[in-house]
Amino acid sequence: MKSIAQRFRLRSAVLLVATAFAAQVAWAVDPFTVRDIRVEGLQRVEPGTVFASLPVRVGETYNDEKGAAAIRSLFGLGLFNDVRLEVQGDVLVVIVQERPTVAAVEFAGNKEFTNEVLQGVLRDAGLAAGRPYDRALADRAEQELKRQYINRSLYGAEVVTTVTPSERNQVRLTFNITEGRAARIKDIEIIGNRSFSDSRLKDLFDLDTGGWLAWYTKSDQYSRAKLNADLEALRSFYLARGYLDFKIDSTQVAMAPDKESIGITVNITEGERFVVSGVSLDGNYLQKDDEFKSLVKIKPGQAYNADDVAATSKAFTEHFGNYGYAFAQVEAVPEVDRVNNRVGITLRAEPSRRAYVRRINIHGNARTRDEVIRREFRQYESSWYDAEKIRLSRDRVDRLGYFTELSVSTADVPGAPDQVDLNVEVKEKPTGSVSVGAGYSTAEKLAFTFGLSQENVFGSGNKLDLQLNTGKYNRTVVVSATDPYFTTNGISRKLDVYYRTQKPYQDQGGNYTLITMGVGLKFGVPVTELDTVYLGMNAERTRIKPGTNIPAAYLDYAERFGYTSSAFPFTLGWSRDSRDSALAPNSG
Fold first, then answer.
1. How many CA atoms lie within 13 A of 81 on its CB side?
2. CA angle 381, 382, 387 (to 5 degrees)
3. Residue pLDDT, tens place only, 152-170
4. Strands 513-526 and 531-545, sheet pairing
């Protein structure tokens, strides 16, 4: 492999010198009018590619400057190892030597990654079958493969490239990989902590020296991203306990010579612990200071907590948004008394300008109609911006259950400082399901079930259900259709049609049968944003088909009301749904 690589490097050096020499020869030509241009040495590259890159055409004057430009342009294509220009009378001859093309890329020894993953990595690096081969590109590919293994804590991984020449000026690349073993964290040391023990601080880290589940969690495999996250958790821990001056001085990651073990050392300075002396408001609070004071989460007399400060600032910003001030700025300014280790917090607010929503833009709903989303919004276009209504609108859309992802963002309107647009981004999910089943029992024998459910029929937001059971003794057909916006103010309507038959399990022939068919209508009336009252009525007809084994109670009923009777049951219900999401709720 080394001899082949050396031969390629030697060839490249010779070609570079030859190219420079050819360029000098080309420049030493008196200008002439080109009668014809001929290209020699092409194997796979189309002649048109060469002609399109030449700065001179037939009938034009050729000179030294155009010759130099032609050579630079052809080399710039990245398709040739050598380019020469020759002049034969008034004919310009372009002689090229194509770079080898990669015929195939293969891997050997890889276990951590599949061939497909590694091929994707190389493709992103510019190396793939069918592309021109370049040794520098192969070297970069080796480094990229090593980087992938380093990300998996395989620091001892080695990659060696074998280049095998093939027919028609092609090469086959084989990356021979020796993965080695993953580097394990042998020790994590924290230096400088006085107020908290090593074990307490190390519990904050996702990285550790391994446990009985380390084979699954891989928590003992070093990752720079994981370490940064752990350091941030350490910083947040101290800032939440009053250590305003806490800082991480340095972090050392030491690799053992065998590249299979790692030691991590974190040097910190805790500083002094500060207590909150008081909280004050400064700025324009819309003459609603008491409302904002009720949102303060910072507790005077207790240790300074950065989380409480951030939560208070966020609550203030959102409360300003409830009054239409979408651009409000709230800054928590600490006034530190280092003599007594106390800190006063001043919350400075600048509500800026009031804004209203110009337009609500919905994106990503390829199937669901815009109106299905818009009718859930309580923030309206051309109305004052209201953060509370926007949050409620987002939750209502998410509760539909039609989307796997949903985000609502605010965008400024160019040229209109008092206007914003709301951009709603959704990612739809399948909302239909089909179930088919079969079962066998000594009583029912063979029974089939079929179910069809579609929660968003044709993107309209309507729901359709179909249930079918073909048992010998119990048969059921139910069709249900729900329109959640039967009226524009949100009253829903559900229509049920059903047919059921029941027989006793004793199979003696001539058994009695109960046949029930009916239709139901139910309305849902929203009384608040979260509460709905349901009112419904069914019209049901039941027929007793006489036969053997009929219970005495059924006979008594038939004597009083007949073998066919009707009923009109009423239903009353109430539901409350305060979830912030139908798929993965965090509250409600």
1. 19
2. 65
3. 878 888 898 888 888 777 8
4. antiparallel
Return the SS3 of 373: helix
Contacts of 439 (CB under 8 A, 6+ apart): 446, 447, 449
Looking up tokens 């050819």 gives 22
Contact 327, 391 (CB under 8 A): no
- At the second CATH level, the architecture of 275-350 is Roll (3.10)
Q: Which residues contact 178 (CB under 8 A, 6 or more apart)?
A: 109, 156, 157, 158, 159, 160
pLDDT band for position 45 (50/70/90)? Answer: confident
477: helix, strand or coil: strand
pTM greater than 0.85: no
Six-digit token string for 293: 């004071």
**Class of domain 184-269 as given by CATH:** alpha beta
**Helical pair 135-151 and 2-27, crossing angle rounded to 10 deg:** 140
3-class secondary structure, 99: coil
Q: Where are the domains of the chain?
A: 2-98, 101-178, 184-269, 275-350, 356-428, 432-576
pLDDT at 123: 86
Q: What is the dihedral of CA 22, 23, 28, 29, to 10 degrees?
A: 90
DSSP state of 124: H
Contact 327, 352 (CB under 8 A): yes
**Domain range 432-576, CATH class:** mainly beta
pLDDT digits (tens, 9 = 90+) for 86-101: 888 888 888 888 788 8
- Measure the CA–CA gap between 398 and 18, rounded to whole angstroms: 68
